[in-house]
Amino acid sequence: MIDQTPQSKSPIRETDDGARALGKSLLANARFAALATVEPETGDPLASRIAFGLDADAQPVSLMSRLAFHTKALLSQPRCSLLVGEPGKGDPLAHPRISLQAIALPIVRTSPDHAAIRAHYLKQHPKAALYVDFGDFLFVRFQIRSAYLNGGFGKAYVLEASDLAAG
Amino acid sequence: MIDQTPQSKSPIRETDDGARALGKSLLANARFAALATVEPETGDPLASRIAFGLDADAQPVSLMSRLAFHTKALLSQPRCSLLVGEPGKGDPLAHPRISLQAIALPIVRTSPDHAAIRAHYLKQHPKAALYVDFGDFLFVRFQIRSAYLNGGFGKAYVLEASDLAAG
Lengths: 167, 167
Prior knowledge:
With 167 residues, chain A is of the alpha+beta class.
């Protein structure tokens, strides 16, 4: 007899230590991400590339130009999503990736956080030293609300922020 | 004397044949994309990975599972965005990419289009033969509304659908 309870039909697996470790590993190794924002004038979604790193507390950060459409969108509507994890060879859908749902928090240049984030980020992105202090660039921290982890076909998980926290 | 007219301050360059060729090349070579959708219940953006190909008329298509969150979002709200173009070595922001603004059009399995799209897609994605005929998978065509092309730092263009059309 086939089990037809709702649980058995859900494509979402129960979160375990392997899923948490995979999610953390994807974030720790990422140097860029796809960002989904909502354009303020139209409400339309926009997918764009951003640089990606972690701060000293393993929270996602990016360095972006205020001239970019996505930065204007984020400053108007901070709810956003980031896709991290790049495919290797073969079917691109067989490779793990994670979609974060997050709130973008701009880092004020005069705040105590700024110097620490700047120093930590430049270790991960040394080439960003060329433009990190340009007037139109700013750091943004992403407060994770939840995440969808896809470890490959049939390996889907819904994670909470605490599943991805440092430690 | 510095020209301070609004035009001179815009980060967007005038579209030329080089920009059109770069945009078409990014689409022709892509096997996956980042998709930005809007979640119907919350209005929040979601970034996720999808497979990516072109149909015989060079229009973007994807094959996706109805079980995925992004498919449910697209079927409810077809306005979406796709990011295409992967970074190589060095600064990820120095590599070209294109953000399409598009409308998702599901391809009905019994439509005349379906067989043609299926055959063309499997040439580009041979491993998808394993699941292309599963009941929960469907083809989606993306009607391009406009595009942002970023050829690397300071090389931004706004393209129209006609700039990316075949020919």
